[in-house]
Amino acid sequence: MSAAARRPANPRTVTLDRSLEELPLFRLSDSPDDSATVFTTESGGRWRVLPAPGDRLPGTFDQDVYVELMRRYQELGNPADGAVSFTLHAFLHSMRRAVDGRTYEQLRGALVRLERTVLESTGAYRLADSGGMLDGRFTVLTSVSIERRRASDREQLALFDTTTAPEPGEARAVLAPTIREHVIRRHVVALSMSRYLGLTSPVARRLYRLLEVARTDGRLAWRVPLDRLKELLPLTQRYPSHLQRVLQPAHDLLFEAGVLRSATMRQERRVWHVDYVLGSRTAPSSSPDRGAEPGK
Q1: Which of 13, 71, 104, 202 has the fewest other C-beta atoms within 10 Å?
Q2: Is 295 contained in some domain?
Q3: What is the sign, positive or negative, of the torsion defined by CA atoms of 182, 185, 189, 195?
Q4: How confident is the model at residue 3 (pLDDT cuts 50, 70, 90)?
Q5: Domains held by the chain: number
Q6: Which of 149, 155, 147 is nearest to 167 (CA)?
Q7: CB atoms within 10 A of CB 11
Q8: CA distance 250 to 290
Q9: Residues 157 and 18 in one domain
Q10: Residue 283 lies in a domain
Q11: Residue span of the structural domain in which 216 resides
Q12: Who wins on pLDDT, 272 or 160?
């Protein structure tokens, strides 16, 4: 590994596997759903997200766990074995989540789900080394181990007022080789952690990730058919007016964060599109155009 690859990343940013960002992975709700996500790329490739038997698809909490895992991986200097170790307490604190028994269980469940959910590509997931498309399966994490704290450690927790759960535990997660290879090769999308965490809507967070894919392509404007955006996020709403009601609060948050300068929904030849104009990477935009209200 080169010195550049070993150098710790800027903690204010996180770089994500660009090939994975271009495809839907996390459902934008945490409701039970054991049906597969199926997505067809513009070139005809097929992408499927297959939940483990008896489990649901990764959701909004899992999305935030994935981003925090990637941040910690880079903070460690992109270790060759892909291993990231942490306490559950510190991990939740970095995610700006409440630290209690319920969120400990959510985190444990998310880590296991990222290990067991199968991602299947048939000409859909681009490989950075060859430029070709993957025909195969992988998981975000290749292994996860979670251990309860030793009794002597638990006795020390009583000395700290901020620790409310008796057994926060320690975890070790290993990122998939393909994902970490893309990070090392800089086949990535960069996010501002402060912006990402400042977006209180899961839809806004996913849309931010998609918009940064467009920025990585060198575009400051992105036109996307509404039906395609629905699949990329993904959303379950069917009608343009229903999708507008879901997207508008996310747009408002992205305007305030400076990610967007404008977002306009328009219909042309009976096809709805969304036209986005990206803002600066750092400065908030001014006088954003909030777009039009479509019909049903």
Answers
A1: 13
A2: no
A3: positive
A4: very low
A5: 2
A6: 149
A7: 11
A8: 11
A9: yes
A10: no
A11: 199-278
A12: 272
Q: What is the pLDDT of residues 221-269, one digit of tens each?
A: 999 999 999 999 999 999 999 999 999 999 999 999 999 999 999 999 9
Of 147, 169, 191, at which residue does a domain stop? 191
Query: Is residue 56 in a domain?
Result: yes
46 is a domain residue = yes
Question: What pLDDT is stored for residue 293 in this prediction?
Answer: 46
User: Cα(222)–Cα(130) distance, rounded to whole angstroms?
Assistant: 27
Q: Which two tokens stand for residue 41?
A: 């790329």
Residue 175, beta-bridge partner list = 141
Burial 21-44 (b: 16+ CB within 10 A, else e): bbbbbbbbebeeeeeebebebeee
| 164-176 confidence digits (pLDDT tens) | 444 569 999 999 9
Smallest CA-to-CA distance from 276 within 231, 225, 206 is with 225
> What average pLDDT does the segment 126-132 reach?
92
Domain boundary among 191, 222, 237: 191
Peptide bond into 234 cis (omega under 30): yes
Q: Are residues 185 and 204 in the same domain?
A: no
